[in-house]
């Protein structure tokens, strides 16, 4: 049962070119947005699409793969976990961010 705690699987399209950062510690981190679409029919029977945007963060070898093969518009699968962090803006206000920390990615489609 512990293997399904805080477990996320998404398939979607990359929203912008991934940002790759090489940290002073030697670690590499990749960040990008992922759009997932949910299709449904409204009360009139017309097809509708609801798009959700997710911020994805990947480290190490997964970041290397993203740097080499992932670009805006590419369809990918992501397996990971949710992580919420806080930071303080210059004006003193605290912000909360929830991100998907990717453990694995699956390259899909031809785009």
Automatic annotation (TrEMBL):
GO molecular function list: DNA binding
A Pfam family reported for this protein in Swiss-Prot or TrEMBL: SSB
The organism's place on the tree of life at top rank: Bacteria
Keywords: DNA-binding
PROSITE patterns the UniProt entry points to: SSB
Chain ranges passing through the membrane: none
InterPro entries, per database record: NA-bd_OB-fold, Primosome_PriB/ssb, ssDNA-bd
UniProt name for this protein: Single-stranded DNA-binding protein
Organism listed in the record: Flagellimonas aurea
